[in-house]
Amino acid sequence: MTDRGSGRASGIDADRLTHEAWSEAVREGDLRGQRCGDCDAVQGTPKAACPHCGSTALETVELSTEGVVYTETTVNVPPLGVDERGYQVAVVDLGDARLMARLEGERAEIGDRVVLSGYDEDDDGYVTPRFERQ
Ligand SMILES: [Zn+2]
Question: How far apart are the CA of 63 and the centre of ligand 1, in A?
Answer without folding.
Answer: 17
